[in-house]
Design goal:
By secondary structure, the protein is of the alpha+beta class. The chain has one domain (6-204): 3-Layer(aba) Sandwich (Aminopeptidase). It has seven helices and eight strands, in the order E-E-H-H-H-E-E-E-H-E-H-E-E-H-H. The chain has helices spanning 18-22, 26-29, 48-60, 107-121, 137-142, 174-183, 193-204, and strands spanning 6-7, 11-14, 65-71, 76-87, 92-99, 127-133, 149-160, 163-173. The protein has an eight-stranded mixed sheet with strand order 1-2-3-4-5-6-8-7, with helices on both faces. A hairpin with a 4-residue loop joins strand 3 and strand 4. The radius of gyration is 17 Å and the shape is globular. It starts with 5 loop residues before the first strand and ends with a helix.
């Protein structure tokens, strides 16, 4: 097992290994109708061998950082997170996350925060952005604690099971990220998971 690269309250991020795909269920997430309900996956079936090739290619890509999300207490693989299209000229990158298993309520936000912090503080990037299905607006609100905000909307971008859905574009920059940290004494994930969960819920209710 790889040692953690980053650690939060309930999860850690580590380098993926082959057993994640062949034993721990990583491949199944992208064939699962519920997991892929609000993204572009789940259309073409993927075998374990194909998924491992995809994982290896992403890990070998010099413009990506792909890490596994591991539950600390339950000792389970929960998902993955990937900093993609890293551009050191414009100092930008995309950030995508997949949670494939039942997870602690703060797990996804913890992973997003840890990787965003790595992008700004270790890679010296200036802007992180991504887009997601409009039905996941509460996720965007939850990561508002890192300065992320809605930046645009595309109509009828997704079409699954005959139902069209909009896409929401969101992002943050280093200035906004650091300002959020300053307001909580530079605690990335607050002092504990209870405070973090309260902040997430407060953001989602706005």
């Amino acid at each position: 097992m790889q040692k953690p690269i980053m650690t939060g309250h309930t999860i850690s991020l580590r380098i993926p290994v082959m057993d994640d795909v062949f034993v721990r269920g990583w491949d199944g997430w992208y064939n699962d109708k519920d997991v892929t309900r609000f993204n572009s996956h789940g259309v073409f079936p993927v075998s374990k061998e194909q998924e491992w090739e995809i994982v290896k290619a992403e890990m070998d890509n010099p413009t990506s950082i792909l890490l596994a999300i591991w539950e600390t207490k339950g000792d389970r693989l929960l998902g993955n997170i990937c900093l993609q299209s890293v551009d050191f000229v414009n100092r930008t990158a995309r950030l995508a996350v997949t949670i494939g298993e039942a997870a602690p309520p703060t797990a996804c936000v913890e992973a997003f925060g840890l990787m965003t912090n790595h992008a700004f503080m270790r890679l010296n990037l200036n802007r992180i952005f991504e887009a997601t299905h409009a039905n996941l607006i509460n996720f965007i609100k939850s990561i508002g604690i890192f300065g992320f905000q809605v930046e645009g909307r595309g109509r009828e971008h997704f079409l699954k099971d005959g139902v069209a859905g909009d896409i929401i574009y969101y992002g943050t920059n280093k200035t906004d990220f650091l300002e959020r940290l300053r307001l909580r004494d530079n605690q990335l994930l607050f002092s504990n998971k209870v405070e973090l969960l309260a902040a997430i819920r407060s953001g989602m209710n706005k």
